[in-house]
Structures
1.
Amino acid sequence: MVRGLRILEDPDLAAARQTNSLAALALTLGLVVAGLYLVDVLRTTAAEQDCALAGRADCLVVAAR
């Protein structure tokens, strides 16, 4: 094994790889945020439906909690 050997890398390739990594990170974060929003919407809808199936008339108040 040779120590101190530096592999020269094309700066354009390094920049492209970094850009692709940042784009993948942004996409992943976007999907996480969208998933959390979807979970919140589904939870609210389920609470409204449970309230309506129980025969209550004030279901909007329950859904606001």
2.
Amino acid sequence: MRHALLAVVAGCSGAHAPSSRPAPEPKQYTLIDLVGGWRWLLRTSEAGSTRIEDEHWRFAAVKGDPTHLDGRYIRDVEVRSDDKLPFACNQRPWYRQRAVFDVAVEITRTGFAIRETEYRTEPSPCDHGFRHAGAYTGELTGERITLAWQGGTQTLWKIDSEIAAPLPPDPWPSAPRIAGPWRWDATSYAEDGNLRDENEWWEITRRGETQLDVTYRRRVTIRSSDGAAIPCANATTWSFDDAYVLTGQREEEHWHLTEVAVQPGDHPCLRATPKRNLDEATAEQLGDYLVLEWRGKRHQVLYRPE
């Protein structure tokens, strides 16, 4: 198969070189030199958080068209809270955004032209899902290619030269399942100034296409903020467990969850308020998160246990 050639002169040139040594032969790159896997990685810190950007690229030959390549890259951005405080979007101290971009590559007089043609994003409460399609010029130098666009550059490093490897699939399921375990954790200050740790363990079972059976266990731990004993517990900490049973009904793109029974925990500090009020919520699944909106506008985000 014939491939379009790009000639790149390695080294400097001048009208008359001071040495009698002949100039090196121009290095010729073809589109086939781009075929394979590439990677880019960047770590930055800003405003109390650490951000790790990781891109895996792959270019593949187009059958019957030696002047173009198909390509795809997976962009993974992980943001972690340096002080362990949770982000509002998912109520956890870290979140991830993932997107897949399809690209088209063609050769030019001075390098390679790379154009993003389509993208897909992983559903997440921390990602609005919108991206701007970009275009780059690429300059190949040995085992690296420098991409340039208005306002910036990045350098990809080659990690393999597998010609027959397919473009990578989307790294998240197209139809995430709602059934299975879910978790929720939160720490806040109680009205008396003590610390309040809340942990919930959920289990969801599908009873059909439109119905769910749901249970969750809720543990609340109260901790003294100043190390003094809490009078009702005669200790610096105390805790209780509640167990709930819910039903779930499909409503268009959401689920409606209704608490139907509760087994409240018991503790001397709860004697003044021994009862629990049953509640209702709408639930929207966004990938590995389940976003709940309870009556009274209480917002809760469940996550898949790792």
3.
Amino acid sequence: MIRKLLFVLLILAISTGIGRAQSFMKTSDLFQSPESNNGKGNLKIIQDPALDTLVSRYILGNKMLSEKYDYAGMDGFRIQIYSSSNRNAREESDKIIADFINKFPTINPPRKIFENPGYFKVRVGDFRSKTEATKLFLEISRAYPDAYIVPDFINFPEGN
């Protein structure tokens, strides 16, 4: 009986040590100013420690996404104007990109995406919501009738 109790206490001690070894960021650390206070007051955040855990998980998840896609961004929508796995899909996608730039010079340059097993896709725009994408989609669908709105990982909007 005593052995079982000691074993349970040992496991609890080890699991507590492992839990504390993980990187942890407090919400108050996010709001620190690098400059001196100069009598402007202090910010004291009183909250449940579980919120700090959620903030840390969110930051870690975003860091992993930015490493996966090689750029910082967020979930959003794009308009896919081309998708094919033909032999000459690479050349066709380049022609579609050139044609799109000629027809819509004010829109950000399209992105060419390769996905296994041999699909080349061309997507345009960075939209935070489907409603934003719909405005441009109506215009683009006249020139590219097979276009449709797809969820994608987009760049952060500028100036917001």
